[in-house]
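Record 1 of the preview.
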Amino acid sequence: MTEHEAAWPPEDIELALDHDSDIDSDSEEIYDAKGNLITDEYVRDAIGDVHRAIDEGRVPVPTSRPGRPSLTGESTHSPRVSFRLPEELRERARARAEQEGKSVSALAREAFEQFLRAG
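->
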């Protein structure tokens, strides 16, 4: 018997054991820390509990993505650009950034700005 009240998981979430699971879903029973048997209904109820807690404000929901402060100084998240480069070039950039006392990202932003200005 569970202590949960609502259906869990929501219709858009599917919980299932994968091929790497150590649990034999046909023969093993799994219990929570309070001794409740974990069943499909138990899991559905637990997801409902989490959604209710969020809806009722009992669980904080982040309003922004974690990470470094915005480069604009505003509350918006700075866009990210990534690209691949040879290891030797990456090491040269790391050494130059260290020599100048800045991050590789700062060095790359400066180089990109200079390149675009020269355009």
